[in-house]
């Protein structure tokens, strides 16, 4: 397929993702031309509400993926690792569907959703519906509900032993998944020892739908469905069919919640993402893994190969995909990719290149990560500290996010979404949304540039020598602020500026030793000349 044909085909698929039929669960229902989700991992509800009003709304973010809001088990010095104290993954061990966690109360959650919607920012809930807790001992959850995983029983729902998959459905002696090439094991056996719900039961389906509908009625816009590959597609389809429409006073009549399903499909296992796309999007893990390999130059990968990145690399169709560079799992070496491929905030220079490319490229629904830091301790390829939870006080209450005057965060919160190179590219994506890739240029190696129609332009230099080239930007004549190195403030640039001629060309210079070896321009950061000001009067 010719490059020009491919770019228009990719754009068509991208546009379809924003114009899905009303009966679809693919549409994100973002406000006012917004395009991008940020995962505020382990943030408290009150902090998220403040962030929607003070930063996300004003800076053009479209939505927030929030940590699971339902009651979870309290994991503190479990028998299998006495060092573990209130890990992040306890949020993925449900005890009930009551809305009380370390992130806040039900009232605080509901208020957050209202405030974020009012700020033009949607809320997407991380829904953990495949399972309940693992072997963390009997006890009480974050809302006080009693549970005993050895039975198993969860009084706060309630679920009893008859609501879980048993030996007649799971063929392994351990009861856990032992072979990922056996669909029955993957979907009927325990994932890492977690009590596996029998979603074929009407009672279980109704309990899950009741939980999700409560969140919909509070005003959320959709869900990330955790561990979707471990549930039968027919069971999920049945649950989704029970969901309410979104709140009409916020989203309009007849709108269905967005659903994006965690399906790790790298092509080598029995479960395929194609099984899930008829009723929602899927998380395209190959996107971040392959983009990381290209920017790391693994196996002689080069930026020039990104010319048809997406469907041309045999990824899921863009209108079915959620695209991301890293997530809370694989930045810890879990899930797909691994340390040698996945880029995270720890490799900040390469990471910013990857995120900038993702936000400039018309593929999928984009999500950026907002992390907390932890001290890595990698032994034999595994981080022994991968369990460490969010910043907390002496009683393991999550700390509020400290925000500095320069927009960065402190006290252990990384806040990648507040990095200028990332939030400015979120705005870039909003500006160029429906314009196709054009004016592709590469040097045959690791220098690339392209425009999005006549709305935006990105150039990246990942070579070991400078880029100094006259390039077609596709932009109207004028002086533009580079949004990677700075911002447009009034009628001046705080970073670099680029002059585009009447023919759309500009002399692009990017030193290979630059802190951020990129230039990004779009039509909303053009400087007005005196002539233009007089002309408009």
TrEMBL record:
Upper taxonomic lineage: Eukaryota, Metazoa, Ecdysozoa, Arthropoda, Chelicerata
Every Glycosyl hydrolase family 13 catalytic domain range: 35-429
Pfam families with a match to the protein in the record: Alpha-amylase (PF00128), Alpha-amylase_C (PF02806)
Protein name per UniProt: Alpha-amylase
Residue ranges of every copy of the Alpha-amylase C-terminal domain listed in the record: 438-526
Organism this protein belongs to: Trichonephila inaurata madagascariensis
Gene: AMY1A
Keyword presence, Signal: yes
Oligomeric form and interacting partners: Monomer.
SUPFAM superfamilies, per the entry: (Trans)glycosidases (SSF51445), Glycosyl hydrolase domain (SSF51011)
Signal sequence region: 1-23
Cofactor requirements of the protein: Ca(2+); chloride
UniProt similarity note: Belongs to the glycosyl hydrolase 13 family.
Gene Ontology biological-process annotations: carbohydrate metabolic process
